Structure formats: structure tokens, C-alpha cells
Amino acid sequence: MIRMSTLKEQTLVGNCKLTADGRTPQQQQIELHQRLQPMVAQQQQNFQGELRPKLAEIGVNLLEYFQLNRRQRIYCQTYFTEQILPQLTPLESEQHLSHISNLSFNIGAIIVNFAQSEVRFVSLEIPQTLPRFINLTAYSESVEGDRLLWNGVAIEQVVAANLAVIFPDWEIREYCFFRVTRNADFSVQEAEADDLLLAIQQQLAKRHCQGFAIRLEISSSASDLLRQTLAEHLDLPAANIYRIDGFLALGDLMTLMALSLPDHEYTPWQPVVPRRLKKIAGVAMPSEFSSQTDFFAVIRRGDLLIHRPYESFADSVELFLAQAAADADVLAIKMTLYRTYCASCDSPIIQSLIAAALGGKQVTVLVEIKARFDEETNIAWAKKLESAGVRVVYGLAGLKTHTKIVLVVREEADEIRRYIHLGTGNYNPKSAKLYTDLGLLSCKADLGKDLSDLFNFLTGYSQQHTYRKLLVAPINLRERLVELIQREIDWVRQGKKGKIIAKMNSLVDPDMIAALYEASQAGVEIDLIVRGICCLRPGLAGISDNIRVISIVGRYLEHSRIFYFQNGGEEAIFIGSADWMPRNLNRRVETVVPIENENLIAQLKFILETTLTDNRHAWNLEPDGTYLQRCPQDSEPERNCQQAFMNLAARENESASSDGWRH
Predict the structure, then answer these.
(1) Contact at 8 Å (CB) between 569 and 498?
(2) In this structure, what DSSP letter does residue 311 have?
(3) Fewer CB within 10 Å: C terminus or N terminus of the chain?
(4) Residue 617 designated active-site
(5) Cα(first)–Cα(last) distance of the chain, in Å?
(6) CA atoms within 13 A on the CB side of 410
């Protein structure tokens, strides 16, 4: 919806500019489809041949319509008549085909009226208000000895079985299931938009059905006539048509995650309260905060590093904002919000910001309403915050604000003190339980002043280009990262050891990759932990011999960014919000902070070292771009880094020792 649509758009306007690897947009599209078609086919084979039978073994059965017993069919017909039929609208207009909703589920059919010698192509969009799978467990007959936890059938099969009811005077010659993927990207000419909020809302209305088609997924059983009819009206070449031998939209199987299958689930994990915050976390309500449960006093004793989901987001970041909102000495709160939470959910962070504003504090929140696919949610929260008296800023023209920062300004005995939180992940309680992220809580004066300057930059009242400690994109982050890499090269040339360890989500930027290649050729040892896209090729003779790349794919989505430079023994280590991609370094406001507390440096080094030794969920990137999963060798213990971090957090939680962090 984004990457491929950008390439198609470039092709349509005749853009022939070559990428770093020498391909035109059109060549990239062709080669991508050549790679993707077999992957999609393999995905179906994995589900049909492996997962579906294994689900059946434990009593979870996704049935075909022809497998239904009499009671199940009667229920499906009743469900169709009462729940589905009133919501269906068959359409035959060619104009309608060109505006089929993005990612909607559809049935296309050729129907014939012999009396009038008439043949028509019609389509039915299955409303997204209906569930994808109909639960038939109550109407199933369990065979003795067999387990039965859930039986269900896909809704499109129920609709297809009742097409004669929808078209009573027509013969159904054939039908197929199909789904259209559309361009979901949009650009707003911010410099020309008088009201950015209105401009975004207008574009959102178009995303659902007005973006040009990128891909057609269609049942492999569809005839050439049906397939060509759809492709023609959607203006799609053959390469963009994916013939699916199985269920379309396998992502809908996430519905089954709601089933209770204790024997096949992860052992529940309850994030622990960071030890230094235990007394504060025991407070029931913000109104009960006292000097004995003072979050600010804890921070004054030393910086804190929160490692979630192993440590609790609710008992750290959320509690920090709750106390700031309730504390009479707090004068102002400033914060950025990129991805928050669903618009209808009760977000504790939003509630704290509202409470602070209603309590007379100056609250300023930058809500990034250009955060892709979260625009509507963020607009809803922005309006709610504004109605409570919060100053809401929508970001800078031409830049997305991706940094994750909080600044709390507090009046204390003899000074105004700034408290900060700077993190690698969004202020989102849902992803805080699923993503690995890091956050720094500090009251260091330099960091506080830097964040004040950064917020002035974000609200448009400053052209700040220098910072005391922070690395800020697009101001100085790229330049400083290259300098840090070059410094390791210089150490090697002086006869000392050079070492870089970098953990991130994506490594795409050509200039950063070139800098790493240069460092490798100079003799710098480089370990990269890149969870997602990595355009660097490790282990190439004479180019990247000294670079190793792994990806961790485990229980949690690896999201934290950590950058380590050995620096001749005077180690430099950073955390922040930026991946090494052109968009992060050039087109987003990002923040990376140096960690200078020895205790916290030890924590971060432990995280990196433990991750690099994983032999259970780590995948090695090979020189040819393929990945090989690590497996424990004979007599070698299994090392699962995420489990190791959970075990450590549990031990630390049970320990009676005080503030210090221990290996």
C-alpha cells in the first residue's frame, strides 16, 4: 500500500531515476512481484499443509462449507438470512469496480438470465462489520475421543452458498473471491494548506476507495474471463495479479488468537515494577502521592533506564506522568505523541495530560497527525486534548515528528528543575506489552535544556541547530553518527581496536551503509542487530568481512535502538527513536541520547551481549541476502535472549537488594 504504490506512481510519471543498486522503479516492481509471488504461494502451503492440520489435532477446525453437517448448514442459512443478507448490495457497475474498497473482501460472479439471453458480471462486497469466521462450535458433533475446541467456517463461503438467494432469477455460472490492495499513501502540500488538520481529514476520506489499485488477489479457481474482467477494470498488469490457492487474507486468522489454548500459549508474563519505583507503584491514586512516594526524588538520586516489556510501562512512564499531573509544584508538561492508542480506548497518559491541564498546568502536546494509518486516531485524541485546554501542536511542515520525549518543568526549593523521559518506543500501553523498548528518566540539566530547545523547535519558535548532548534529526544526527563511525576507523589506524554494535529496526540508508563498509575495510569489528529490513550485505570479501548481522524474531517485536562505539576504551553508547533510514535521518524529527551513567551503560552492554549470543530466535544474514536461523549445537545450551531478560527481571524483582542494577 505504500512502498509498491510509490514505485508505481514513479513509473506512471516517467521517473527513471536509478536506485543505489541500479534499478529503475519499473524494474523494482517487476523483480518484487517475481520474489513475492512464490512467497505468497508458500504462505498458503504452510497454512494448508502444516498449520491447519495441526490446529485440527488440538480441536480447532476451520471447515469448508461442504464439510458442514445438517445442523451447521441450517444455522448458516439462518445467519445468512438474518445477519448477512440485509447488509449486502450487489453491484454490476464498471465504475463501482474501479472504486472497490481497499482490502475489502469481495465475491465476483458471472450470472446468466436465459429467458432474456443476458449475461452480467456482478460483485458483492462483504461488509467489514461482519466477522470473517462464523462460529459453529455449538452445532458441532464431537466424536468420542476427539477434542473439539472450536469449529468455524469462513463467511465468504456462506455467502457463496447462498448466491441463488441473492439472484433468484439468474443462474450462477461461476464465482470467485477477490481482494484489492490500493495505494494508501497520500501527500499534503503542507506549505499550501491553511489548515493541516482539515487537509489530512480530506485525504483520509479518499484513502479507503480512491487510491489506484496496486494488487489483485483472486481465487486460483477463477476463470480467465473473471480474472481478466477484474484486471481490466482495475488497470492492473498480469504481474500484479496474485492467484490464491486457499484462503485470502490469512491475517484474519488472528481472530483465533482469542481462543483459550493454555497448552499452546506463552507462559503469561507480568512486567515487573522497577525496583527503585516499588514504593511509588504501591500508591493507588495520584492524590495519595507524598514525599515518601516521590517519583521526582527517585530520579534526582540517579538516572533510570526502563526496559519494557520486561519492566512495567504502567508503573514507570504512566506513573511519572500521573504524578506530574497531580503534583502542585509541576508548572508545565510537554510531550510528543506519535502512535497513541485506539481512539475509543481509555489511555492513562491522555487522562493524565487532561488532568494536568484542568488543574491549571501549562500542557503542550505535539500530536503527529501524519503518523501513517494512525491519522484518524491521533486526530480524535488531538481534539479531545484541545477541548480540555491542552495546547496541541500538529508538527513541522515537511517533517514528521517521530521522537518520543516528555519534559516536566517543576518548581523546587531553590530552582526550576526539568525532568525528562526519552524513549525508543511510542507512548502506547498496548505496544508496551508487545515491543521491546528502552526509556531514560533523568533530571540532568543539559538534557533538560536540550529538550526545552527541541520543543521550541517543534512548536516553530526556534531554528535551533546546536544541542548540548542530544543528537537530533534532521539537524545533526546523521553527521554525528558518521563521525562516531569515523572515530572507530581512526582508532584502528592508530593500532588500537575498533568496535561498533548497533541495534535497530531497519538499515536502509546508502550513506550509512557505505560508512559501515568503510569501517569494516579499515578493520573495525561490527555487529548489527537489525530486526527488519537490512540493505547491507555482511561477510563480502574485501567489502564487509568484519560485519555480522542478526535479526531476532521471538515472542516480542524487537523495537529498541541502541548504538555502541568502543572509542578506544572510553565507551560511547546511545539510545533513541531513529533507525538508519533516509526518512529517519532526513525527513523526521528524531532524538538520540548518550547514556553516561556507568550503571546504565552496563545494562545496555548486557542487553547487546545477551542478544548477540542468542541461538534460538536469532537469524544470521548471509552474504547473498538470505537468512539462516541459529540452532544450539550439540551439548550447547539454548540461549533465548528475550527469555533471559524475563528471567533477569523476575530475579531482580524478587531480590531484596537496593537501587543498584546487577548482572
Answers:
(1) no
(2) B
(3) C
(4) no
(5) 44
(6) 27
Which pLDDT value is given to residue 661? 47
| CA–CA gap between residue 559 and residue 478 (Å, rounded) | 20
Contact residues for 465 (Cβ-Cβ < 8 A; gap 6+): 475, 476
Q: Which three cell numbers stand for residue 164?
A: 441463488
Dihedral pair phi/psi, residue 409, rounded to 5°:
-105, 125
- DSSP H or E stretch at residue 499: strand 499-504
Map grid coordinates 487537509 to a residue. 199
Structural element, H or E, at residue 400:
strand 400-401
In the numeric block, which cell numbers belong to residue 586? 532526513
Identify the three-state secondary structure at position 631.
coil
Bridge partners of 60, per DSSP, are 150
pLDDT at 216 over 90: yes
Beta bridge partners of 303: none
Task: Tell me whether the omega of the peptide bond preceding residue 309 falls within 30 degrees of 0, making it cis.
Answer: yes
- CB contact at 8 A, 574 and 503: no
For the chain, what is the largest distance between any 2 Cα atoms, rounded to a whole number of angstroms? 94
Helix (H, G, I), strand (E, B) or coil at 608: helix
Q: How many CA atoms lie within 13 A of 651 on its CB side?
A: 9
70 by Cβ neighbours in 10 Å (0-12 / 13-18 / 19+) ranks as: exposed
651 burial class (0-12, 13-18, 19+ CB within 10 angstroms)? exposed
- Which 3 state secondary structure label does DSSP give 149? coil
Torsion of CA 266, 270, 275, 277, to 10 degrees: 150
Q: Pull the grid cell for residue 478.
A: 546523521
Tell me the per-residue pLDDT of 523-577, one tens digit each, with 9 for 90 and over. 999 999 999 999 999 999 999 999 999 999 999 999 999 999 999 999 999 999 9
Give 626's Cβ-side CA count (13 Å radius).
Answer: 5
Q: What are phi and psi of 654, to 5 degrees?
A: -85, -20
Three cell numbers at 505?
529496526
Q: Which residues contact 620 (CB under 8 A, 6 or more apart)?
A: 548, 549, 550, 627, 628, 629, 630
pLDDT of 379 over the 80 cut: no
Give DSSP secondary structure letters for 445-476: HHHHHHHHHHHHHHTTS------SS-EEETTT
Express each pLDDT in 20-68 by its tens digit: 788 999 999 999 999 999 999 999 999 999 999 999 999 999 999 999 9
Rounded CA-CA distance 389/554 in Å is 42
Nearest to 8 by CA among 212, 261, 281: 212
Q: Which residue has the cell 452458498?
A: 161
Nearby residues of 161 by Cβ (< 8 Å), 6 or more positions away: 65, 76, 80
d(CA 55, CA 354): 46
CA dihedral of 305, 310, 313, 314, whole degrees rounded to 10: -130
Among the listed residues 307, 402, 421, 559, the single catalytic one is: 402
Cβ atoms of 331 and 362 within 8 Å: the answer is yes
User: Which band of pLDDT confidence, cut at 50, 70 and 90, is reported for residue 196?
Assistant: low
Contacts of 18 by beta carbon, 8 Å cutoff, 6+ apart: 24
Q: Quick one: cell of 152? A: 468455524
Q: State the residue for C-alpha cell 521491546.
A: 436
Predicted confidence at residue 658, as pLDDT, reads 46
Amino acid at 326: A
Angle at 43 between CA 235 and CA 433, to 5 degrees: 105
- Cα–Cα distances (Å) from 451 to 445, 461, 615, 619, in that order, read 10, 14, 39, 37
Please name the residue that has the C-alpha cell 504452510: 46
